[in-house]
Amino acid sequence: MTNVKPYVYDLTLEEWQNWVKENSEPAFRAGQIFDWLYVKRVSDFDQMTNLSKGLRDKLQAQFEFVTLTEVAKYESKDGTVKFLFELSDKNAIETVVMKHGYGNSVCVTTQVGCRIGCTFCASTLGGLMRDLTAGEIIAQIVKAQQLLDSKNERVSSIVVMGIGEPFENYDALMKFLKVMIHPKGLNIGQRHITVSTSGIVPNIYRFADEDTQINLAISIHAPNDALRSKLMPVNKRFPFADLIEACKYYTGKTGRRITFEYALMGTVNDQAEHAEELSQVLKQLPMSHVNLIPVNYVQERKFVRTSRDDIFNFQRILEKNRINATIRREQGSDIAAACGQLRAKHENQKKRRSNEVTTIEDGKSN
What we know:
S-adenosyl-L-methionine binds at residues 164-165, 196, 219-221, 296. Belongs to the radical SAM superfamily. RlmN family. This protein is α/β, with parallel strands linked by helices and 366 residues long. The protein folds into 2 domains: 8-62, DNA polymerase, domain 1; 69-350, TIM Barrel (Alpha-Beta Barrel), CATH 3.20.20.70. It is built from 12 helices and 12 strands.
């Protein structure tokens, strides 16, 4: 990262309260700063007009706003809007705004790239570059809300399912969530936020102990150890049986159900025997719900989409075994809205341009 100053979005209200105290400012200034950031949503310290010039100068000297330069913006026929943003260090991230009957949902990214290595996902192409700060995650929601402000609409729900593994950037994730749900901030209801993990077992236990009402989703994608390890290398670090035990702890501690995300891949994990085996596993977790996801085609990956008949048959088998299952409604397929696709394309174009420049320079030197 190139920024040497913390971002204004990196601080919770409590941390702002500490900051104003340390800077000999009245306590109420913390609430004013928070209001400017999340209610009025300004993008410059000079716009904070009810703060003294001295305080604005202090803020200018000690903090900066997150740089999210819009590299690309694609709008789908179904209303989905996908952004490719460039950060201050020239790395790129994706943010998606999805329109539903119940409101607007935003899918945020937590890392630049991903090291989990799921064999069907575009997010892992190129590996992990770095974690985002809490402020860089928060800035994606602020940008989305600024887009919706012009329509007199608001962000009604958040899914932490963008690029990266949220539970491998746990502290930044929790700070992000704390700011999102704060009544003096964007005031998003806890039950309208879902965090998705590939199964980082220690932090599933940790998340269970946080005492929140935030939803948990787990990418499972296979009904057994052997197949899951082929599709998701993270399973070698945190085996299937350990993951199920962590899920039992979570449901026992919180009383909340877990949503299991299951990407259906043609002939790989979508057969009747897979559905039966998954049913037996999830009977250990009575409150579980399965979200069936027809896999998105990724050029660099060779998986094909499950046929429509097999998708519905898979769902029927789960429901026959009293496992609640739904099929995810597809959104943004015409704009490469699958996680990581747009960033992968952008990174490939950057590499090609860089190679072209290198070739020209080599030609000149010869």
